[in-house]
């Protein structure tokens, strides 16, 4: 009787797993051809696409986490690692209602008013932002508006219905906060809210007049104080003209982060377009327990000495720009400098990232660190980096809420070649990924000061690519207005909706001179150009 060689069987299983992973990774990267030794992040993978890969693998009964992909970014490495690990697992089952309620103290649960669909503790991220906004006295802080023009006729009834369905889909749009009644700050997700829509009609078809009106609404709305106790904490305004309509959505970051804004807009336009066609949109539902899952992870990290020590080591360096007493609390970063990133430069950076086995984000972050070093004369810099904290749950990319954190990242030896710096930056992000939801406020409490005075935000909101599927609703003239609390913020935007790729630097003119900021921008632009050529 012939017996199969166990080693041969293991090889066969790993080969099957390699084929499965190749298909999944290629599909999630938009249909790219993926070789067994191609680096997922070098091919353009990011944190949200990585979540989709993890969930797709889990749904096939294979145990996998985001950490596995971070440390084994090629299909060959990942297949070997997973084959040697526990063979079968599934994504955690959604928490039942009783378990979700258990996050609240029993004495608090009896105080929840009628009409509330779910009551949960507010996350530490939410509480930190709300506290900062309240103590600053600035109603514009973390209060953002995004606007655009839709080139189509406006049907108020159908648009209002689409907005109501949007509120039904996303609990964040039905959320208020109670900061004093309970033993801790609580977020109340109401069963329903009245869609907060106002409509202004202009008979003139000159787009400039519509743009002027929607901007005026934005300026007036941002000056209004936030009432945390009343849902919804967002508003929508439409300026309708004969052949088009301008839309602006204002919301607070306590309920909607940057990626979530994109998700809301795509969902809203798809719902409206389906209404115009007389059809159901049939959009996939976001996970009902997403916020609960995030809170569980955040609470585990708050109790983790390992996570606290990791971020303390990253942040424990001399401040880069400001002395201990010069900056504390919320800055007023109302001034800015911008420059475009030409297509050839971006293409060259992508090629360098592929050749060095890193991501485009890591390479841009390395260029940012190099620019900071040239600008300040420091060889040891700490910069804040915006990271995604969404739970590893099917449909996490469909969730709307506050799932972005800003954490310190420390880089040294900045005279190294940029590809090497990019590898170090990628390794630092990889090592911090298990702790990425650890609240910034806790890092700063331990330090006794801000963890950094410079932040870097790499923005590749490919969710807006879904607008291509919104038939008959072309959009144009996109704009955004917002004010985070950091004194010096660098945004690297890839393939924006209209402006293409660009770098935007926002700063507080009371703390920094414009000429000095322009000097940083020149250093960063030069570093990006060098990165595009694979240069040192």
Task: Describe the protein.
This protein has 536 residues and is an alpha+beta fold. It contains 17 helices and 14 strands. The strands form 3 sheets. It has a 6-stranded mixed β-sheet. A 5-stranded mixed β-sheet has the order 5-6-7-2-12, sandwiched between helices. The protein is globular and about 60 Å long. Residues 6-10 and 87-91 have low confidence and may be disordered.
Question: Kindly, what is the distance between the CA atoms of the first and last residues, rounded to a whole number of angstroms?
Answer: 63 Å
Cα radius of gyration in angstroms: 24 Å
Q: Major sheet: size, sense and barrel closure?
A: 6 strands, mixed
Which consecutive residue ranges, at least 5 long each, have pLDDT under 50?
6-10, 87-91
- 3D shape: globular
Please, what is the average pLDDT? 87
Strand content: 15-25%
Please provide the count of β strands: 14
Short description:
The chain is an alpha+beta fold and 536 residues long. The protein has helices spanning 6-28, 47-58, 66-71, 75-83, 97-101, 106-109, 124-136, 156-169, 207-222, 258-277, 290-302, 305-315, 343-356, 360-376, 418-432, 440-447, 514-532, and strands at residues 116-121, 143-150, 175-178, 186-190, 197-201, 234-240, 245-252, 335-340, 380-388, 404-412, 455-459, 475-481, 488-496, 500-507.
């Amino acid at each position: 009787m012939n017996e199969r060689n166990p080693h041969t069987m293991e090889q066969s299983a790993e080969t099957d797993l390699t084929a499965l992973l190749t298909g999944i990774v290629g599909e999630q990267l938009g249909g790219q051809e993926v070789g067994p030794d191609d680096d997922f992040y070098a091919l353009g993978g990011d944190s949200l696409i990585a979540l989709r890969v993890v969930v797709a693998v889990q749904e096939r009964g294979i145990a996998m986490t985001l950490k596995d992909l971070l440390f084994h970014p090629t299909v060959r490495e990942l297949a070997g690692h997973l084959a040697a690990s526990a063979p079968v697992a599934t994504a955690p089952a959604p928490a039942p209602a009783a378990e979700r309620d258990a996050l609240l103290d029993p004495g608090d649960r009896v105080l929840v008013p009628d009409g509330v669909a779910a009551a949960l503790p507010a996350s530490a991220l939410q509480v930190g932002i709300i506290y900062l906004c309240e103590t600053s006295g600035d109603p514009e802080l973390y209060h953002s508006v995004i606007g655009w023009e839709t080139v189509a006729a406006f049907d108020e009834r159908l648009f209002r219905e689409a907005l109501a369905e949007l509120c039904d889909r996303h609990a964040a749009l039905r959320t208020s906060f109670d900061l004093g009644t309970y033993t801790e700050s609580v977020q109340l997700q109401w069963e329903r809210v009245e869609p907060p829509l106002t409509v202004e009609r202009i008979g003139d078809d000159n787009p400039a007049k519509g743009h002027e009106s929607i901007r005026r609404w934005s300026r007036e709305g941002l000056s209004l104080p936030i009432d945390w106790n009343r849902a919804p904490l967002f508003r929508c305004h439409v300026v309708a003209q004969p052949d088009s309509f301008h839309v602006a959505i204002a919301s607070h970051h306590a309920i909607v982060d940057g990626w979530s804004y994109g998700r809301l807009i795509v969902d809203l336009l798809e719902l409206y377009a389906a209404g115009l066609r007389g059809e159901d949109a049939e959009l996939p539902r976001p996970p009902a327990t997403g916020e609960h899952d995030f809170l569980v992870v955040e609470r585990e990290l708050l109790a983790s000495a390992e996570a606290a020590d990791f971020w303390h080591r990253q942040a424990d360096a001399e401040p880069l720009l400001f002395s201990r007493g010069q900056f504390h609390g919320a800055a007023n970063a109302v001034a800015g400098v911008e420059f475009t990133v030409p297509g050839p430069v971006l293409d060259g950076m992508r090629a360098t990232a592929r050749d060095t086995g890193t991501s485009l984000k890591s390479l841009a972050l390395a260029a940012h660190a190099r620019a900071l070093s040239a600008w300040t004369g420091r060889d040891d810099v700490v910069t804040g980096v915006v990271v995604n904290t969404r739970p590893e749950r099917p449909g996490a990319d469909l969730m709307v809420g506050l799932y972005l954190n800003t954490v310190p990242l420390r880089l040294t030896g900045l005279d190294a070649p940029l590809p090497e710096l990019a590898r170090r930056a990628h390794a630092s992000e990889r090592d911090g990924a298990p702790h990425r939801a650890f609240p910034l406020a806790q890092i700063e409490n331990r330090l006794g000061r801000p963890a950094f005075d410079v932040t870097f935000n790499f923005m590749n909101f490919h969710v807006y690519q879904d607008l291509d599927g919104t038939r008959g609703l072309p959009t144009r003239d996109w704009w955004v207005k917002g004010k985070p609390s950091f004194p010096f913020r660098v945004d690297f935007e890839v393939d924006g909706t209209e402006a293409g790729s660009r770098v935007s630097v926002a700063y507080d003119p009371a703390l920094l001179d414009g000429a000095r900021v322009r000097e940083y921008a020149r250093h960063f632009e030069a570093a990006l150009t060098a990165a595009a050529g694979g240069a040192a």
